[in-house]
Amino acid sequence: MSIEYLGLSEISGPLVVLEGIQDAFYEEVVEFVVDKNRRKKGRIIAVDKDKAVIQVFDSTDDMSLKNTHTRLNGRPMEIGLSLEILGRTFNGLGEPIDGLGRIAPEVVRDVNGLPLNPCTREYPRNYIRTGISAIDGLATLIRGQKLPIFSGNGLPHDQLAAQIVEQASLGEESEEAFGIVFAAMGVKYDVAEFFRRRFEESGVSSHVTMFLNLSNDPVAERLIAPKMALTAAEYLAFEKNMHILVILTDMTSYAEAMREISASKGEIPSRKGYPGYLYSEFAALYERAGIVRGREGSVTQIPILTMPNDDITHPIPDLTGYITEGQIVLERSLHQKNVYPPINVLPSLSRLMKDGIGAEYTREDHQDVANQLFSSYARVGEARDLASVIGEDELSDTDQKYLEFGKSFEQEFVAQGPNENRTIEETLDIGWKLLHILPREELDRIDTKILEKYYSQGEVR
Amino acid sequence: MSVTGKIYGINGPIITVKGNLGFKMSEMVYVGDRRLLGEVIGLKRDETIIQVFEETAGLRPGELVEGAGRAISVTLAPGIISNIFDGIERPLQLIGEKNGAYIPRGVNVDLLDRERKWETRITVKPQDVVREGMVIAEVPETAAILHKVMVPPNTEGIVLWTADDGDYTIEEPLVKIRKTDGTEETLTMTQQWPIRIPRPVQRRYPADRPLITGQRILDTLFPIAKGGTAAIPGGFGTGKTMTQHQIAKWSDADIIIYIGCGERGNEMTNVLEEFSRLTDPKTGNLLMDRTTLIANTSNMPVAAREASIYTGLTLAEYYRDMGYHVAIMADSTSRWAEALRELSGRLEEMPAEEGFPAYLASRLSAFYERAGYVENLGGTDGSVTIIGAVSPQGGDFSEPVTQNTKRFVRCFLALDKALAYARHYPAINWLTSYTEYLGDLEGWYQRNVGDEFIPCRNELLNILTTESRLNEIVKLIGSDVLPDDQKLVLEIARVIRLGFLQQNAFHAEDTFVPMEKQLEMMKIILYLYEKCKELVNVGMPVALLKENHIFEKIVSIKYDVANRELYKFEEYRQMVDAFYHGLLETNA
User: Fold this and answer.
1) What gap in Å lies between CA B467 and CA B489, rounded to an integer?
2) CB spacing of A118 vs B272 below 8 angstroms
3) Domain locations in chain A as residue ranges
């Protein structure tokens, strides 16, 4: 399969069209040689008889319709994997960029992955202690879950993700192997560097594999980087029995890249110019989290996305929320009040929480406390609205109590130090202490027995 | 001789074949060397357009496309119940056993087990005249379901021969008949039926029996009729899936077809695990013994997602024809609509609203119209109830899928973000939801629950509506300034919201509540209201009434009174009386 084609018939942005080819297949990898010396890679994204549309994983700047030789690889996009990838840094195409040379692959995998059979999945149940009250207490992270961080530009999502990674890995029982796969899609150099430094400082960098596509790297490569990362994660988890945390940042850039390619391809846009298959493409990434029955390891995903204009109904967070198992939402107004982490607990949610907490996993009162905190904090919003109309002094006693509760909740429960690692008991006890601010009859979400057992404790602590 | 052609172009799940080769619309085709399943969706003068139900990466132009000579169909025979299929009825359990954790491309498996012998009892004898839909044999398919082997539609004749009662596979001959045109036909347990064509029925009945779900807000406020249609729209995290799970678990349908259409893999795993563990409270059988799952998770091929809805419907109609009441949970119809949009985009069709194809509305209406309470061909009654989840973009109900769905369903259960944020579950908003079935079902409620049921229900809704009106005022000036009778409405509405509407799916007693208890709960709340009103009328402030913990006690009836202990309501009634007289005496 080594026929070389000379020349191209069209170049448009990151896409080129090649005519007169034989035997090309969908998703096949091609190699270009420009002016006989510069090598580039590409991927076929549409075939029509003898015409192929190819996405170039590099700039098309120096390519002309004449100076390019194209060779079809006969293979889909693949990555060579072995345990050596731990501690290494790659570009979005899986080529090492840390100057330590190539790795010796044990296996070669198609990066597109295959859908996991629901019958062979294991339903995730083990909770991961992140040491962050707002997450552990109210939107518990479960091993094998996909729990994105919905953020906005300028909010500390990177710090939060780094803190989750550090504290979650510290919390592991030491015998179990853990690892981190980090995929950067179109993020700034500083962001990638921030993560690298944090991993180094916390001494986990020998367990980290990084795939970096920075904001000035080719757009087409951005679409491959997360697939590379997830293929590596699946390999480590399901073949090497490791518990893998995958950080994908920034999903918004990934979607933008898809829109750009789709537009160059001349496809019919759906919402806000994004292609109609955005949901399917997101799902192909997010659904790769999970646990396979009978295997030791797990893939847990923490994708980060910045909501354009802080709008949670924008297609990117919207479609993500429909696929992932919950979300952690950062809120600008909390950030402005100097609350770190600025997690707005009301829209935050962990769908797998209900099966991973309680007497068996955390503590018997966990679900009730969480429900009550949610319900009471929702009421705080109403009291605040009312206060802004009629003034705080005019509020009823109960509403005043709610205002007090709301303030303490944000300052004591949600807020914590960037290195503070709370146990689940500490988190729940803070919860009880705060609930004690409210009159007992307002606590209508808690089972009477649990209320009797714990309510008085709030007083003491 | 089957029609063949060669792949010309590939664009995601859509492939084209050049030339007019004689493929038929909706014909099933095998695509490429791995024989991927596909369906003809467009014919032009010199081009055939095919959607492929499997991942197309790796296909090359020039590979063979072969027509199967029949429309894309499902195989109908014992072995469907308690199974889990993908969007085109391939058994996932078996694929898992053969291929490991992942679903590879081009898997070739039998749709239903052809080896397994089923215990069969023949119900006809030679010389009997049999018509379409008549039962010729019975097979206990699971502990809960007796599978009735029927004469396929459009077939009738005289029985010439029958097999003896015994164990047979789904392909062995059971009955031979001579048809009216003189030809002979051998009937087995197996039928094929094209998924896009509704199975014929004798006639349709009005929907006048409710689907009892044990969920208070559904059964009491917004009931769904057997054979009816309902939509559950809601943004992410509002509890669509949980609501569907609850209905699938506890409703009084005989069979549940649960279609996970473009949803999460872990959710399907959860249903599978949970339903294999939980038992049906009415029969004591495992829930899985009456359930079929169809799983096209969001990362499975998009064309199969489009088909999964029809596959599920056809299976449901097949069991309806046996005389069962079947309920379909379609989670989520928006993913199906988006699959239509994605395919339509690939076909470069002219988009209508928000990029959805112009035929979205007609497809939706055709889908929901396949529900119904019918007399089937065999002369028995059966029903198909469709409950579809809708995932509106950005939680905005004005988008095309929600709006078009609203036109074709008669029960609309709107999930509310604010309720979900406050963890009020089920987060069904009682002000924006509606049901058109109440009038049809009134008679049933009067006969089976009690005359006072409908008036109580209306009174409950009335209090809730008044509360919302009062809340508008409270938002502006606070609740302290309201007169006491209005304060009382707020208090009672709170009792209704917490004690009645809110239902805990994880509480052993509260997860399913029989109609009788629902009625008693309503009555005691309204009794409390009545007595409180009298107290307020003689000038007692609501603050004084609240000092007694009677409100809290009524709220926790849902936990404190077990479903079997309805006699305890009498104690509560006395408690209310004691509270009433006590207050009157001390403050007279």
Assistant:
1) 6
2) yes
3) 3-76, 79-355, 368-454
Burial of residue A409, with CB atoms counted within 10 A of its CB: 0-12 exposed, 13-18 middle, 19 or more buried:
buried
Q: How many contacts does A have with B, using Cβ atoms within 8 A?
A: 224
Q: Which residue has the higher pLDDT, B1 or B245?
A: B245
Alpha carbon distances (Å) from B581 to B535, B540, B573, B584, B586: 10, 13, 12, 5, 9
Tell me the CATH number for domain A79-355. 3.40.50.12240
- Minimal CA separation from A354 to chain B, in Å: 9
Asked if B345 lies within 8 A of A277 by C-beta distance, the reply is: yes
Which of A30, A43, A110, A117 to mutate against chain B (most B CBs within 10 Å)?
A117
CA A246 vs. chain centroid, Å, equals 7
Give the pLDDT confidence score for residue B246 in this predicted structure.
Answer: 94
* CA torsion through residues A137, A150, A115, B101, sign: negative
Within 10 angstroms of residue A360's Cβ, the number of other Cβ atoms is 10
Q: What is the pLDDT of residue A457?
A: 67
d(CA A192, CA A199): 11
Cβ distance A280 to B556 less than 8 Å, yes or no, reads: no
- Region B425-449: what's the mean pLDDT? 95
**ipTM confidence score:** 0.88
* pTM for the whole structure: 0.92
Please tell me the distance in Å from A260's CA to the nearest CA on chain B.
16
Residues 427 to 466 of B: which have CB under 8 A from any A CB? none
Q: Crossing angle for the helix pair A448-460 and A424-435, nearest 10 degrees?
A: 90
CB contact under 8 A, A114 and B103: yes
Indicate the SS3 state at residue B293: strand
Architecture of domain A3-76: Beta Barrel (2.40)
State the smallest CA–CA distance between residue B583 and chain A in angstroms. Answer: 20
- Angle at alpha carbon of residue A249, lines to A29 and A195, rounded to 5°: 115
Q: Are A254 and A270 in contact (CB under 8 A)?
A: no
Exposure of B60 by Cβ count < 10 A (0-12 exposed, 13-18 middle, 19+ buried)?
middle
C-beta separation of B324 from B255 below 8 A? yes
Q: What is the pLDDT of residues B165-183, one digit of tens each?
A: 999 999 999 999 999 899 9
Interface contact B549, partner A, CB < 8 A? yes
Residue type, B563: N
In sequence order, what are the residues at sequence separation of 6 or more whose Cβ sits closer than 8 angstroms to the Cβ of residue A196?
A89, A205, A210
State residue A79's pLDDT score.
Answer: 94
Residues of B in contact with A448 (CB under 8 A): 556, 559
- The SS3 of residue A79 is strand
Q: Show residues of chain A in contact with B16, CB under 8 Å.
A: 48
pLDDT of B249 above 70:
yes
Mutate to test the interface with B, among A49, A54, A322 (most CBs of B within 10 A): A322
Nearest by CB to B478, which of A238, A280, A390? A390
Closest CA–CA distance from residue B322 to any residue of chain A (Å): 29
- The answer to whether the Cβ–Cβ distance between B237 and A321 falls below 8 Å is yes
- Percent of chain B residues topping a pLDDT of 90: 76
Provide the token pair at B170: 């789904």
Asked whether the predicted pLDDT for residue B348 surpasses 90, the reply is: no
Mean pLDDT of B284-310: 92
For residues A117 and A351, the answer to whether their CB atoms sit within 8 Å is: no
User: Which pLDDT belongs to residue A4?
Assistant: 86
Low-confidence ranges of chain A (pLDDT < 70): 1-2, 170-176, 457-461
Q: What is the mean pLDDT of the segment spanning B76-100?
A: 93
Contacts of B345 in chain A (CB under 8 A): 267-268, 270, 275-277
Top-confidence range, A434-448, B202-216, B538-552 = B202-216
Q: Chain B partners of A378 at a C-beta cutoff of 8 Å?
A: 418, 421-423
Tokens of B15: 């492939």
